[in-house]
Design goal:
It is built from 7 helices and 3 strands, in the order H-E-H-H-H-E-E-H-H-H. It is α+β, with helices and mostly antiparallel strands and 130 residues long. It has a 3-stranded antiparallel beta sheet. The radius of gyration is 16 Å and the shape is globular. The chain starts with a helix and ends with a helix.
Length: 130
């Protein structure tokens, strides 16, 4: 399955909004109510969550038995995850980041984060020099 960067961004933005209480847990049934879940579908949504965990951007516990989720408890966006999210939050930065990487068939989340950081830095530099 190919990693969908739009889904990654949608998930992180929505988790940040929905997890409004410190240390609040989000369970499988909670996540299935997300707009990003409805928009991207079960497989893409959870595939992106697992890749975000591998990248160290989110933390959760889970139990899969016979290819079915029996337990899922999302705990937090990590420090690295917040840094990534802060780099891609702004719609203009996100648009320019996607444009920058559009020439490639795929890019990693960590590379996407670096590109977004560079785009953001360039946009700030251009605003300061005006």
């Amino acid at each position: 399955m190919k990693l969908n960067s739009e889904c990654v961004r949608d998930i992180l933005l929505e988790i940040e909004i929905k997890q409004s209480v410190l240390f609040e847990k989000l369970y499988y049934e909670d996540l299935k109510k997300f707009d990003s879940y409805a928009k991207h579908g079960h497989d893409q949504f959870f595939y992106c969550l697992y890749r975000l965990k591998e990248a160290g951007y989110v933390d959760f516990s889970y139990k899969i038995i016979e290819e079915k989720i029996h337990f899922f408890c999302f705990s937090k966006i990590t420090w690295e995850g917040h840094q990534f999210l802060d780099n891609i939050r702004d719609s203009a930065v996100w648009k320019n980041t996607k444009k920058s990487v559009s020439k490639f068939s795929s890019v990693s989340i960590s590379f996407l984060s670096k590109v977004a950081s560079n785009v953001l830095s360039q946009m700030i530099k251009n605003n300061l020099s005006v």
